[in-house]
Amino acid sequence: MPVITLTSDFGNTDHRIAAMKGRIISLNPDITILDISHEIQAYNLKQTAYIVKNAYHHFPKGSIHIIAVDSFYHKDRKCIIYKADGHYFIAADNGVLSLIFFDIKPETVYEITYNTRFDDIVRFAAADVLVPAAVHLHNGGLPEVIGRKYTTPKQLSFPNAGFTDHMIFGEVLYIDNFGNIISNISKAYFEEHYVIFDRFTIKFRNLALSKIYSGYTGLVTEWENETEFHGKPAAIFNEAGLLELTIYKGNIKNGAHTLFGLNIGERIYVEFHKD
């Protein structure tokens, strides 16, 4: 059965998440509400996109995902609905949905017209605009009843990895709760260029690695019983298919982000070699 999910930069201290959930169950007490994350850094659309993109497809088709990040209402910015990949996504028109679906064209996009005509009605956009739209869709309502087709949603883009001569150059895209460093170098892009070479070196700051494990499971399988590997750096392709730098058994305090000193936007290189 479809559900409504919530993602926000509201944190868990203030009233806002409770207000959203209260509004949902006031409109339909039978709806299942699930949280994706409320610990998004304030206004961080790239972080939002990474988290939602890697979470939403685990929910039932037809689910409605409210994304209340950088969502405070003002009359010059629309609230929109994306229908994409069998799900609905509701957010402010700030570009976050274009980041989530940089590789998938939405089936339709609507501007939400419900409750947005008069500024004094919209005190809290997440509860006053996004929630009623989500409940309407969950109840089987059509998006055109509460909105109109919209052809010019704001577009943003992630930086792409590139290739020159014998080297891929990418950058840090995201840092997760374990301090792992996720790059914008995909496994497919790596394999596309590696095919004509014999070996490679991953370079970042003053460090280098020459092996990529196929996921953290592969790393654990090889290193689990060897205590000397604890705290050692490694590279993997994570569940999103992206090159990730990690510290074995690391965490946010002593993980790759802390020990390597890499921040979002900094360069990571993969240099290819022939024997």
From TrEMBL:
<dbReference type="InterPro" id="IPR023228">
    <property type="entry name" value="SAM_OH_AdoTrfase_N_sf"/>
</dbReference>
<dbReference type="InterPro" id="IPR023227">
    <property type="entry name" value="SAM_OH_AdoTrfase_C_sf"/>
</dbReference>
<dbReference type="Pfam" id="PF20257">
    <property type="entry name" value="SAM_HAT_C"/>
</dbReference>
<keyword id="KW-0949">S-adenosyl-L-methionine</keyword>
<dbReference type="InterPro" id="IPR046469">
    <property type="entry name" value="SAM_HAT_N"/>
</dbReference>
<dbReference type="InterPro" id="IPR002747">
    <property type="entry name" value="SAM_OH_AdoTrfase"/>
</dbReference>
<feature type="domain" description="S-adenosyl-l-methionine hydroxide adenosyltransferase N-terminal">
    <location>
        <begin position="4"/>
        <end position="147"/>
    </location>
</feature>
<protein>
    <recommendedName>
        <fullName>SAM-dependent chlorinase/fluorinase</fullName>
    </recommendedName>
</protein>
<feature type="domain" description="S-adenosyl-l-methionine hydroxide adenosyltransferase C-terminal">
    <location>
        <begin position="170"/>
        <end position="268"/>
    </location>
</feature>
<dbReference type="Pfam" id="PF01887">
    <property type="entry name" value="SAM_HAT_N"/>
</dbReference>
<dbReference type="InterPro" id="IPR046470">
    <property type="entry name" value="SAM_HAT_C"/>
</dbReference>
<comment type="similarity">
    <text>Belongs to the SAM hydrolase / SAM-dependent halogenase family.</text>
</comment>
